[in-house]
Amino acid sequence: MTMMGCCVPSRDTSDRFSDRCSTLFPCLSDPVRRSTLCLRLALVMLHLIFVGFIFIFDQDFRQRSKDQPLYTSIYLLLVVVTLVQYFFTSGSSPGYVVDAMREFAKTEASLRASEVSKNRLGENLLGNNPMNWTKMVMDMYPPAPPGQPATSARTYTCTYCHVVQPPRAKHCHDCDRCVLQFDHHCVWLGTCIGQGNHCRFWWYILEETALCIWTGILYIEYLQASFDKAWLVDVIMIILLSILSIALIFLLLLLLFHSYLVVTNQTTYELVRRRRIPYMRNIPERVYPFSKGACRNLYNFCFARTSVHALEPLPSAHELEQMSVPYTCLDVISCRCCC
């Protein structure tokens, strides 16, 4: 009884402390958000550790910072920009189907209101133009070939969100939402990569790769200059350099892979699970149905996005047939692959 009586206050105190922390920091009450927060803190700490070792133990680098302050300023600016880009990307929306439906509903309501104000027979206009989300999405899918049953809205309806998915959309089980132009769910960022933040994700990988290369060069210069001085520091530097090399290989491969996806206007999900996507099963492997040429794909990816909820229809059978024609020397000269 005495032991139980002693344990009860401590348990009540811990419960009160956890409740107070949950009140002050709501993100700590959700296990998913708590794990995401821990990952973000761990990534920031890794950056501080790798950069801090250079400033603490590399005397030549500190002397260079005094002689060439611009060199160090640019390096620190790259560190700050990389971390800012990380948080900017992790906090951005990938573009959800539900948000696209809301935007479509607002646009449709404003158009109908303008039609009503311009025409006295507004009720007839509303009745004769039953535009809705389902009809618009189904118009983006080509009709079924002759001899096959016509596709219905149920075929493209998400079984979790119960919304009609436009082409390239997929339900993410981690976010529990349907994402437009779904690429993958990034654990390190704690969010999905989709139409709304794929460009930011690519820039973050590029900045992180450049930072890893620059930091690795600084580590190698330190080891070459002071390999026979403090062996314990050298061992720590070698371990950190090994970790940095592994991270750099992974980042380089990831950067090249996503650059290929951008040039061909594909997503990771479409490339890996091509045969599991119903409307892409009958498309040949070497045909990229959403590609508009390398140059135009790059332009659309970087500059032409007017909304994170822009939708891409599937090409018709005639367009797919034209895409499947192999390139000739004349096509290469005329830059058919680029335009």
How would you explain this protein's 3D organization?
This protein has a domain at 30-94 and 183-339. A hairpin with a 4-residue loop joins β3 (184-186) and β4 (191-193). 17% of the residues are buried. Mean pLDDT is 82; it is low at 1-9 and 120-130. The protein contains 13 helices and four strands. α3 (59-67) crosses α4 (69-90), α4 packs antiparallel against α8 and α8 packs antiparallel against α9. The protein starts with a helix and ends in a 6-residue tail after the last helix. It has a two-stranded antiparallel ribbon with strand order 1-2. The chain has 339 residues and is mainly alpha-helical.
Helical content stands at 55-70%
Estimated radius of gyration: 27 Å
What is the count of β-strands? 4
**What is the N-to-C succession of helices and strands?**
HHHHHHHEEEEHHHHHH
In terms of per-residue confidence, which ranges show pLDDT below 50 for 5 or more consecutive residues? Answer: 1-9, 120-130
Tell me, what's the shape? elongated
Number of helices: 13
Which strand order does the major sheet show?
A: 1-2
Q: How many strands, which pairing sense, and closed or not: the largest β-sheet?
A: 2 strands, antiparallel
Tell me the fraction of residues in β-strands, as a range: under 5%
Structural class: mainly alpha
Rounded to the nearest angstrom, the distance between the terminal CA atoms is 82 Å
Q: How confident overall, as mean pLDDT?
A: 82
